[in-house]
Design goal:
The protein is an alpha/beta fold. It folds into two domains: 128 residues, Enolase-like, N-terminal domain (Enolase-like, domain 1, 2-Layer Sandwich); 234 residues, TIM Barrel (Alpha-Beta Barrel), CATH 3.20.20. Helices cover 34% and strands 17% of the residues. It has 13 helices and 14 strands. A seven-stranded parallel β-sheet has the order 7-8-9-10-11-12-13. A three-stranded antiparallel β-sheet has the order 1-4-5. Strands 2-3 form a two-stranded antiparallel sheet. Helix 3 packs antiparallel against helix 4.
Length: 404
């Protein structure tokens, strides 16, 4: 095969409600960019990346001189063509590389008539378990969807358990004062005896606040405490002061950082993100390092539609040391751009697609519908909160939203 065209389409996907986080909010929608890589045999491989809008589309178009005529099976050469570490000092293309890698692996699977997991060593599990991934939420314009109190949080989680079968619950924090969020987190854990929990304030706490928070939840059935503070040395200091395992998707997101963590441990669980690491294949390499040094592994979510979810499932299928349930924003979506609609959860897990390639197809009507919605609504500032227009966080943060 040879690549003959590369296209990008940015879409806006509505959410059930605006999701709050330590740096701002998702304003009731995700902005994602769908990438299509076409080969000379007429096959089209699918990729996906976050946000960007017109800038993402322009960035993908800018890769055409590199990609036209390239064999999509040569994914290792692709890495050096697009993201040579020296060249990347001037133009960091890691997330662009990931979207192209997804599409090239998809093309290979389609050409050979096999799922991507067969190209990556074969699956060791048929389904990937997921955590519920809970957020504090702003209300919609009609007043529905708000999650601000412990009671609202528990009620929402109970609905997700009933609908999807989750038995692991992750709360995204860093929004309200730490003591308030700890009360909410404890209420969540106590409402579901026998379930496991995890908390993630996105690095918003000081080291000392993180230690204090950890000591207030040590009696719960914690999978881990994710990014309680920012920076590897800060994480190391927290780790020295709590028995709860620490996890990250911020301070170990490349191989140099992974090596530093092996030499001087600061993190126990590495959350592998197929976008942040530059593709599925780098995540598998990183998982191999983690297997060697007995570090925990989970699959991280950066706000996916069905194409990226498929990459997460293909990754989760082949990693033997996947020791924790994966994260996914997926259940917050109102719709998807893949044929057949959203992939279903069964007993808190999603089946690994076995169709050729990534195992999903574009619904072109949905793609057009949500591309038009993006043109109508435009982008939104991920690092701003619509309810606090002049606010921005410091690290460590001390200016919390008012839970009342």
């Amino acid at each position: 095969m040879k690549i003959v065209d590369v296209r990008a389409t940015t879409v806006t996907m509505p959410l059930e409600a605006p999701l709050r986080h330590s740096n701002g909010a998702h304003w009731g929608r995700f902005v994602r960019t769908v990438v299509e890589v076409e080969a000379d045999n007429g096959l089209i491989g699918l990729g996906e990346m976050g946000g960007g809008g017109q800038s993402a589309e322009a960035a993908v178009a800018g890769l055409k001189p590199y990609l036209l005529g390239h064999d999509p099976a040569r994914t290792e050469a692709l890495r050096w063509m697009l993201a040579n570490p020296t060249a990347s000092l001037y133009n960091n293309r890691t997330q662009l590389l990931a979207a192209i890698e997804f599409a090239c692996l998809d093309l290979q699977g389609r050409e050979l008539g096999v799922p991507v997991h067969e190209l990556l060593g074969g699956k060791v599990r048929d389904a990937v378990p997921f955590a519920s991934y809970l957020f504090f939420r702003h209300p919609n314009e009609d007043g529905t969807g708000e999650i601000r109190t412990a009671e609202q949080l528990v009620a929402h989680a109970r609905g997700l358990v009933d609908e999807h079968g989750f038995s692991v619950h992750k709360l995204k924090g860093g929004v309200f004062p730490p003591d308030y969020e700890r009360e909410c987190f404890r209420a969540l854990a106590e409402a579901f005896p026998g379930h496991r929990v995890r908390f993630d304030p996105n690095g918003a706490f000081s080291v000392e606040e993180a230690i204090r928070f950890a000591r207030g939840i040590e009696d719960l059935d914690n999978d881990y405490l994710e990014d309680p503070t920012w920076g590897m040395n800060g994480m190391r200091r927290v780790r020295e002061n709590t028995p709860i395992p620490l996890a990250t998707n911020t301070v170990v997101v490349n191989f140099e950082q992974l090596a530093a963590n092996v030499r001087d441990p600061a993190v126990d669980v590495i959350l592998l993100d197929t976008t942040f690491w530059g593709g599925i294949r780098p995540c598998i390499k990183a998982a191999g390092v983690c297997e060697t040094f007995q570090l925990g592994v989970a699959v991280h979510s950066s706000g996916e539609l069905g194409i990226q979810l498929a990459t997460m499932l293909q990754l989760g299928a082949v990693v033997p040391n996947l020791s924790f349930a994966a994260d996914a924003h997926y259940h917050h979506l109102r719709d998807d751009i893949i044929a057949g609609g959203k992939l279903p959860y069964v007993d808190g897990a999603i089946a690994v697609p076995d169709a050729p390639g990534l195992g999903v197809e574009l619904d072109r009507d949905k793609l057009a519908e949500y591309a038009e919605l993006f043109r109508e609504l435009g982008p939104y500032p991920y690092d701003r909160d619509p309810a606090r227009p002049d606010w921005y966080p410091l690290l460590p943060n001390t200016d919390w939203a008012d839970p009342s």
